[in-house]
Amino acid sequence: xxxxxxxxxxxxxxxxxxxxxxxxxxxxxxxxxxxxxxxxxxxxxxxxxxxxxxxxxxxxxxxxxxxxxxxxxxxxxxxxxxxxxxxxxxxxxxxxxxxxxxxxxxxxxxxxxxxxxxxxxxxxxxxxxxxxxxxxxxxxxxxxxxxxxxxxxxxxxxxxxxxxxxxxxxxxxxxxxxxxxxxxxxxxxxxxxxxxxxxxxxxxxxxxxxxxxxxxxxxxxxxxxxxxxxxxxxxxxxxxxxxxxxxxxxxxxxxxxxxxxxxxxxxxxxxxxxxxxxxxxxxxxxxxxxxxxxxxxxxxxxxxxxxxxxxxxxxxxxxxxxxxxxxxxxxxxxxxx
Length: 337
Known about the structure:
The protein has helices at residues 18-26, 46-56, 70-80, 99-109, 145-150, 163-168, 180-191, 217-234, 242-263, 272-282, 287-296, 304-318, 332-336; strands spanning 5-11, 33-40, 60-65, 85-88, 94-95, 115-123, 128-131, 160-162, 196-207. The relative contact order is 0.12. By secondary structure, the protein is α/β, with parallel strands linked by helices.
């Protein structure tokens, strides 16, 4: 009999964390699952860890492929999946034991739901750092297309979605290395009727460390801008509001890209007035950006250089990655991207 849930785990040089991720799957109170670990050409002991887990637990399957990236690895797992539902789990995250059981229980109250998620905590491996949806903040619910155009509402390891739905849009697009999960949620929302439901209880710990792909700010923002602009061009004109929402989101993403590039230590801070001006043009309601652009453009005699240095220093602090050392090398596909 096929399992109810297929757990998709892409892995690359994950020997520091993969055992914890797999252990959290094995401990699930919902027992109708299979886990597919796709080793994306690791050069550490990840293959040995995955093979050991597969030998100990028949529901864990190990697949090896050449280094291609996270999205191709997820697609390789999807091609082998048999479950009615697909759950994503990144190699450095962990689930609470009740994660799958409590998510699937949402279907008793919301039988039409087709995107199930959980709240989650940022975590450094020892301590919980912050809660994604704090008390008093509403959870995304129902048709979340407009909200999803503005930001990625769901961390990948929290989501449970029907396998047939993912297959209907072709799975994950390899073009989006940093934002592949957000791109998939948007494709599902734009092409289908999405009914999202989630748990207030945080059932996932999202590990924050120096190797997190989402900390590569400039490259990530460039990819997000391209993704949103592409989706806006292809949005269904018959579905009111889709394209305008995506275009607004793309403009905000362009503003964030300008700020992230300005915060990059490799960027000449003399470009600050122009970059801040372009960011403000993308977000005219952000008066602070306009004021900063004007201050940075002042002649040196009027303090322009002083203001520019202060603004750039603040941006660099804001965009600075978490100061947690990375125990792993950057993946080969990141370096060649």
